[in-house]
Amino acid sequence: MATITRDQATGAGITDLERPGRATQRRLRRLLGQQVVPRIILIVMCAVFILPFYWMVALALKSNHELSIYPPTLWPHSLEWFNFKKATEVFPFWRFLWNTTAITALTIIGSVISNPIIAYGFSRIEWPGRDKVFLVVLASVFVPFPVLIVALFDIFARLHWVNTYLPLVVPRFFGTAFWIFLMRQFFMQIPRDISDAARIDGANEFQIFWRIILPQSLPALGVISIFAGIAAWNDFLGPLIYLQDASKYTLSIGLTFFQSQDSYDVKFNLLMAASALVVLPVVVLFLLFQRAFVEGISVGSFK
Amino acid sequence: MNPSTTVQTTVDESLSAAARAQGRTGRFHLPSRGERRNLVLGLLFISPWLVGFLAFLVYPIYYTFRLSFTRYSGFGQPTWIGLANYQRMFDDQVYHTALWNTFYYVALAVPIGVIVAMVLALAMNAPVPEVPVYRTILFMPSVLPLFAISFIFLTLLDPNQGIVNEFLREFGIHPPNWFGDTRYAKIAIVAIAQFGAGQVALIFLAGLKGIPQSLYEAAMIDGAGIASRFRNVTLPLMTPVILYDLILGVSQGLQVFTESYIITQGGPANSTNFYVYYLYANAFRYGGQMGYAAAMAVVLFLITFAIAILIFQTSNRWVHYDVT
After folding, report:
1. Residue B71 is inside which H or E element, if any?
2. Is residue A297's pLDDT more than 90?
3. Among the partner residues B18, B199, B301, nearest to A132 by beta-carbon distance
4. Interface test with B, best of A54, A142, A147 (most B CBs within 10 A)
5. How many CB atoms lie within 10 A of CB A140?
6. Structure confidence at residue A5 as a pLDDT band (50, 70, 90)
7. If you average pLDDT over every residue of chain B, what do you get?
8. Is residue A250 part of a domain?
9. CB distance A97 to B12 below 8 Å
10. Dihedral angle, C-alpha B311, B252, B56, B260, nearest 10 °
11. Which of A65, A71, A262, A286 has its Cα between 20 and 30 A from that of A235?
12. How far apart are the CA of A135 and the nearest CA of chain B, in angstroms?
């Protein structure tokens, strides 16, 4: 309203001068809203998100002497690369690395074998009640794992599985709801005609699964391998409950060695060097397969 | 960890497919040979899941329930003691503290998480060419192991050697001893949880990209400003995704454990003694209070479901499914 009255009052000549001014103003506002403000938010948040990892690396490279300096230095003065070697000697790093790798590998194998078979039964064969049963699969995601730890521990103890890798690995051979879901989504995108044609040619369901559907699903198998592998690598509560002998520990619980040795004299530089070594494979995998992660996110979670 | 809208759509599809199948074949009919064959084949293919579901989920739930009525150290046979474990929960001050701590954590971490993720998603939805770089940085922490992140925060928030307190001192703020102070320890753990916001932000971002541009154009013709467009177009259309994140966030929040195990061991003065931490400690630390821990597990199970149902029930008041 106000502008109209002003335009009317000042006359046409000035309105012409004002118009480009207002357009610039609008463009400026747009630039601010679509470019400047989002950028500032993103850059600040990225700085916040990077800070812990910068600090991990910075601490890992500090010498013992520099650690004792107060206030703490922001940037390590002399880069102690030797800390990484030392970190692998304070605790049985290579032993734990082997244990973790073995569990991770077996988890991947179990996940890659079981989930496609199960997902096939939930997507490429039509049987009465199938989709209702699938709702049960989805619902099972909502049961919090810690609710089960008391019973699972006792069940596995009675099977003499405690202090072995079996409780961590065997369940993965029976499918995981999220990977079943992910695989099923993938299978449903494959046209039905392909299966029908194979059936007419006399192929049975297992042949169709093994020879036709599975070879087309290698990208999905790759996604599941990465997610299942990282979930095993990152697992903390499982190994904490089931593994008792220190020689069987994973890296995740192995890192707590740094605290238990002498809780008042935790060597932060070595702790961070060891943490960096544990995190590094995940970072590399993430950077290599970022697209798979982003796509996996839109289907399900991997934690 | 969170499934996105796709979960919802698939559930809907499955339901409608089931309804259609029923309409087509009628309610009572004998299955044909082909149908029986498919049933057998289908069950055969899903049999690994069925076995695992019964062995590693249904039976443990039932077993937890049974153990909750016993005194059991983990050795020998459980002794039936009726409801004594549940009674004990009523009197156990530490249990009450753990329950309160956990609710406090969820009530802070989940809503803050939604807001942080929404701000990140809105920013990433802007036509900024270098968004993939930001996305990589923001998403990476959600992939990394929580135990490692906990160790990093242990050093990051250390009162003497940590960099955060050094920054605060630069700004003239007297920095707290985060994990050593009952007033700040929980808040520090809430802050750690926000480093997983990148994942939720990506789910939100996918939701934002799905909002038809025509709706914004229509709103702009009606003279809606940025704030009004967000409140009347973006937010209502995002509510289904927010609902999913809320339910999963609450479920995960109730399970908070690793941070307090690694950083604070429940302290100081039980201020970070969370539900699962106390459950774990009873089962595996305090000389095997397996029966009591089982009773706590049953209650956690019920709390999780009660809150999920509560959120679902209120959702028809604030979640919009069919705006488009």
Report:
1. strand B70-71
2. no
3. B18
4. A147
5. 17
6. very low
7. 88
8. yes
9. no
10. -140
11. A262
12. 7
Q: Residues A176, A229: contact at Cβ < 8 Å?
A: no
In angstroms, rounded to a whole number, what is the distance separating the alpha carbons of residues A206 and A212?
10
* One CATH from 3.90.180.10, 3.10.580.10, 1.10.3720.10, 1.10.10.60 for B87-318: 1.10.3720.10
- B144 in contact with chain A, both atoms CB, cutoff 8 A: yes
- Answer yes or no: do A29 and A158 share one domain: no
What does the pLDDT look like over A47-100, one tens digit per residue?
A: 999 999 999 999 999 988 888 887 888 888 888 899 999 989 888 999 999 999
Q: What is the pLDDT of residue A12?
A: 44
- Residue A94: predicted pLDDT: 95
Same domain, A54 and A88: no
- Residue type at position A298: S
Q: Is the pTM of this model over 0.90?
A: no
- Tell whether A31 and A94 lie within a shared domain: no
Residue A108: is its pLDDT beyond 70?
A: yes
pLDDT score at B90: 94
Closest CA to A292 of A202, A204, A224, A190: A224
Domain holding A112: CATH number?
1.10.3720.10
Residue B4 to chain A, least CA–CA distance (Å): 6
The helix (H) or strand (E) run that includes residue B79 is: strand B79-80
Residues pairing with B96 in the sheet: none
Task: Looking at the structure, tell me whether residues A51 and A94 fall in a common domain.
Answer: no
CB half-sphere exposure, B19, CA atoms < 13 A: 6
Residue A179 has pLDDT above 60, yes or no: yes
Q: Are residues A46 and A103 in the same domain?
A: no
pLDDT at A203 exceeding the cut of 50: yes
A30 and A143 belong to one structural domain: no
Distance from CA of A197 to the nearest CA of B (A): 17
Helix (H), strand (E), coil (C) string for A71-114? CCCCCCCCCCCHHHHHHHHHCCHHHHHHHHHHHHHHHHHHHHHH
What is the C-alpha separation between B157 and B306, in angstroms, rounded? 35
Cis-peptide into A116, omega within 30 deg: no
Q: Which chain B residues are closer than 8 Å to A157 by Cβ?
A: 74
Query: The domain containing residue A33 runs over which residues?
Result: 2-60
Q: What is the ipTM of this complex?
A: 0.86
Q: What are phi and psi of B79, to 5 degrees?
A: -100, 130
Pairing of strands B79-80, B70-71: antiparallel
Query: Is residue A68 domain-resident?
Result: no
Tokens of B138: 């923001």
* A267: in domain: yes
CA pair distance A268, A143, nearest whole angstrom:
37
By residue count, chain A amounts to: 303
**Residue A277 belongs to a domain:** yes
Rounded to whole angstroms, the Cα distance separating A87 from A274 reads 6
DSSP state of B78: P
Distance in angstroms (rounded) separating the CA atoms of residues B222 and B257: 49
d(CA B77, CA A244): 22
Q: What is the pLDDT of residues B51-74, one digit of tens each?
A: 999 999 999 999 999 999 999 998
* Tally of domains within chain A: 2
Choice between B297 and A142, residue whose per-residue pLDDT is larger: B297
